Amino acid sequence: MKIPENLTIAVASADLKNKKYSAVELAEAYLAVIRDKNPGLNAYLQVYEDVLAQAKMADQRLSAGEESTLLGIPLAIKDNILIEGKKVSAGSKILENYTASYDATAIRKLKEAGAVFLGRTNMDEFAMGGSTENSAFGVTRNPMDESRVPGGSSGGSAAAVAGGMSLGALGSDTGGSVRQPASFCGIVGLKPTYGRVSRYGLIAMGSSLDQIGTFGKTVSDSEILFEAIAGVDSMDSTSSGKIYKKSVVAKKLKIGIPRSAWEGSLDKSAEASLLSAEKKFKDLGYEILDVDLPTLNDALAIYYILMPAEASTNLARFDGVRYGLHLDGNSGIGDYKKTRGAGFGKEVRRRILLGTYVLSAGYYDAYYNKAVALRRQLTEEFLKVFKKVDLILTPTSPTPAFKIGEKEDPLSMYLSDVFTTPANLSGLPAISIPGDEVRVDETLLPFGIQLMAKPFKEDLLFHAGKEFLGESD
Amino acid sequence: MSFCACSINEYHTLVISPADIEKLAVLARVDVPKEELEDLAKDAESIIAYVARVEKKVKSGVERPSEKSAPAPEGGLKNVMREDGEPTPSSTWTEKLLSLAPKRSGDYISVKNVFE
Predict the structure, then answer these.
(1) Environment class of B86 (CB within 10 Å of its CB; exposed 0-12, middle 13-18, buried 19+)
(2) Mean pLDDT, to the nearest integer, of A176-191?
(3) Residue B61 pLDDT
(4) What is the mean pLDDT of the segment spanning A343-363?
(5) Model ipTM?
(6) Which CATH number fits the domain A1-473, given the four candidates 3.20.20.140, 3.40.1280.10, 3.90.1300.10, 3.40.50.720?
(7) Active site residues of A
């Protein structure tokens, strides 16, 4: 079969149920696209050998009359989410030949729902980066313009969906790693509320920030995936017992824009896309207000203290003793140093060193504790603003997708997380949806706008996102 | 362990040298190639100079925040406890986990001698 243009999860699900095609045919069609496009894009690091067997199982369940929206739906999974018996490397040499010994909870839930996993997707090593250029296994190219990055760290998942190599995908978002690539590739990316989706089986970077997120071509598809993976889990004590309930939004929502945070400093493409989004929401009947978040400008600095601190701690587990790469040094500690030196790439080493620095005795009070205090202040400011408005609107990223190799120094790369990190620091749900495209050097590039909501109000993001994109609810 | 190799004065101009990076690398148990030290020091310095704005923002005398400081969205985070009990039967995971170890001898993970 040929994949119908603009096929979505929602439509494919109905087609499968109505026997327009089988799950095996659908999977075969996606495998053909992957064979054609992946050598150029490098979105998938591995396509699983059992895709058709998985699809066959889904067909059996479909024939038995089982009803699940994701039954037989082909998905791509970021290379840091564990699927039992499959390789998972977090884009790193240190885990190059590591095989997962259990299923992540999100994966277990998708298996129960009958999804078909096509393969694992490329990413910045240990999710550290905004372009996939930090992968130990080569850069992924943006399907919209192959000279540009797809964003990151979940760039492979975003490119797989945008390039028509998958219907949907999972990524992870610690500081924007789902939303920014969604913006760069012109699709929808959701970071749920902290605690909404179990982190069990997600290879950790910053445990107080990490959250598994979803990619889809539409807001509805993101919602379908989100509903499938959300929920409390005894294996993740930070997962929340709050049940996701879709509320009926009867009134017109209020949207706040924290304009004072970037007054005058916004890139003109971002400015134009934001203005146009603002107008569109106004036309849809939303009330737009200016809101003040005085600590928003410090979010990136707070983030780049807390995240390396947590990452350096989390990555201490990679020691070449229990799993992963092992290299022999001249002592036990020599083994660790040699293994970690050779197994981790430069950006990962950099963040481990930065984390070690901000946690060291002389600097703990100067940096780490102050960042923790400011993080609390930011969260309080957000909660105060959410008493006045239902949603906060910003660009997703300061610029559209940049060229491969364009950002050489790490700080300029970090700055592309300026709009996305606040939601992680304060545990808020946030979504990137395609706004107006912007023209750069004669090329039209996708550009995302971001909506943030109060914790556990993903339903408001879906509602406003669907209205914005003209999707039916 | 105390680590005060880098100097920081009240104007927040700080200098991170390649030697400092070497010391951090020892603490972090990660080998860093000699030719990367200079670069990493320069990067670290510009990153720390950027994030040091949090210092200015928070007035001195900020105490170590309590667990309240964690992001506490509504219905937020609490310590989660459970009673001991229902242990996993012995050897449930042994083979699965040991099969991942780079070096093993029998049912043990093998490492270098700590004492010669």
Answers:
(1) exposed
(2) 98
(3) 44
(4) 94
(5) 0.90
(6) 3.90.1300.10
(7) 78, 153, 177
